[in-house]
Amino acid sequence: MHGSVRKAAIRIALAILLSGGCGVLLDAQTQAPATRPGPIYNPATEVTIKGTIEAVNHVAGARAWTGTHLTLKTDSGSLDVHVGPSWFLEQNKLSFAKGDEISVTGSKVKYGETDALLAREITKTDQKVTLRTAKGFPLWSRHGRHP
Questions:
Q1: Model-level pTM greater than 0.85?
Q2: Is the dihedral of CA 72, 75, 78, 84 positive or negative?
Q3: What contacts 111, CB < 8 A, 6 or more positions away?
Q4: Is 129 strand, coil or helix?
């Protein structure tokens, strides 16, 4: 009888543990969208813009990444271009400097009160790098690698 009491106690403990764990998972799932950083890529707003880089900025990201942003001077003014994680650019041997002339294809979005461009593809002289799939999934994420 002692063995059956022990088995029952283990079952109850597991049930309590599992039900508590599910609550934590459900809570995390409901909070996930609120913590999603930045604007979302929209293929319907995709444009190609040419210009000259005025500034290269490295911005701390949500996942302890440093993101590369470019201030691009175009015929119609300056635009903030969100390129991607700096490590991804280094991995693809792509660097930017003030004065570089580039062409950027990306989704035009609002970031706070300002217009911005989420880059999908950048061409610099004879070098072209793709940062996102045609649907806008980042190539540095699992969704971009497995669309």
A1: no
A2: negative
A3: 38, 39, 80, 82
A4: strand
Hey, what CATH class is 43-137 in?
mainly beta
CB atoms within 10 A of CB 82: 21
Q: What is the pLDDT of residues 53-65, one digit of tens each?
A: 999 999 887 677 7
Question: Residues 77-105: pLDDT tens digits?
Answer: 999 999 999 989 898 888 899 999 999 99
